[in-house]
Amino acid sequence: MNITANGINIEVEDQGPHDAPAVLLIMGLGMQLIAWPPYFVQPLLDAGYRVIRFDNRDVGLSQYFDELGPPNLPWALARLPLGLPVKPPYTVHDMALDALGVLDALGVRKAHVVGVSMGGMIAQRVALAAPQRVLSLTSIMSSSGAAGLPQAAPEVLGALVTPAPADPAQALAHFIKLYRLIGSPAFPADLEQMRERILLGLQRAFHPVGTSRQLLAVLCDSGRAEELRTLRTPTLVLHGKQDPLVPYACGEDTRRRIRGAQLVGIEGMGHDLPPGAAALLLEALLPHLKSH
Questions:
Q1: How confident is the model at residue 73, as a pLDDT?
Q2: pLDDT on residue 194
Q3: Residue 233 backbone dihedrals phi, psi, to 5 degrees
Q4: Of 176, 175, 181, 173, whose CA–CA distance to 156 is shortest?
Q5: What's residue 272's pLDDT?
Q6: CB 38: neighbour CB atoms within 10 A?
Q7: Considering its fold, how many domains does the chain have in total?
Q8: Is residue 187 predicted with pLDDT exceeding 90?
Q9: CB 227 within 8 A of CB 128
Q10: What pairing do the DSSP bridges indicate for beta strands 235-240 and 262-266?
Q11: What is the DSSP letter of 142?
């Protein structure tokens, strides 16, 4: 369903009893709500939670910001390491306000907030902006954004910042290459299932310029790392130890910055959610949710 949240249109999937504790799932860069696999969502529902997913702004069936124009990522990537100012079209904080707006629109006063990759950054911003509304925080395969952290390998970073081609067949090949680069070595993806998932996403919505604007928002969110030291929200950090896009050291850094945070590293997991890795994530996540 499409709702108004934070003054914009956001596509939402709301499952489970409305009087149950809510779990807000926030997806990563350029990814739609359907990227949360059923084998991750269903155990949360089976455990008695209300599970809320949504498309972040500028992707999926949520509102696009094409009036802001395409970002110049090479220009931004040249300026940011030099400390020169870059103004993103919107910020990660704006996206956190969207998430809080989703809770407002659904009448949810408090929720467990779970985010992956960029979604983990948004989840961190949600907890910073409104800690009284966050029962617990879970940051998966994400980062504090601190300067000096290990970066993705050049090949992986190059694939990430290269916009997907407009042609559907070329876009499919682009995403297969990217997902194979960042996948979990201990949980190899089935190529045919990967193709089906990518095609499902392409058929639902395809808006690569929105992904580029989201990426610029992430690159410009430089102050979050120090702010995380003020958090007192019960926090679980989950991270694959073989993540080639957001290295494991980024998860270790996030854990160090948030007082009382717990870190669980997943051996053999990269930057995706295959069934085997998802099962291990849930082994840590479900007790975390239950205890808060």
A1: 86
A2: 92
A3: -75, 135
A4: 181
A5: 97
A6: 11
A7: 1
A8: yes
A9: yes
A10: parallel
A11: -
The pLDDT value recorded for residue 78 is 85
**pLDDT tens digits, one per residue of 108-118:** 999 999 999 99
Q: Residue 180: in which H helix or E strand, if any?
A: helix 168-182
Q: pLDDT (tens digit, 9 = 90+) per residue, 90-143?
A: 999 999 999 999 999 999 999 999 999 999 999 999 999 999 999 999 999 999
What is the model's pTM?
0.97
Q: Which pLDDT score, from 0 to 100, does residue 253 have?
A: 98
Domain of 274?
2-290
| Ramachandran bin of 20, using left for φ above 0, alpha for ψ from -120 to 50, beta for the remaining angles | beta
Closest CA to 254 of 120, 122, 100, 131: 120
Amino acid code (one letter) for 32: Q
Closest CA to 52 of 28, 25, 85, 27: 25
CATH of the domain at 198: 3.40.50.1820
Of residues 154, 186, 210, the one with CA closest to residue 29: 210
Residue of 53, 84, 50, 89 whose CA lies nearest to 69: 89
Q: How many CB atoms lie within 10 A of CB 197?
A: 17
Tokens 């979990």, residue located = 184
Cα(31)–Cα(53) distance, rounded to whole angstroms? 12
**Phi, psi at residue 225, to the nearest 5°?**
-55, -45
Please report, as a single letter, which amino acid is at residue 75: W
Q: Quick one: tokens of 107?
A: 């009448």
pLDDT of residue 162: 84
Q: Which residues have a Cβ under 8 Å from the Cβ of 170 and sit 6 or more positions away?
A: none
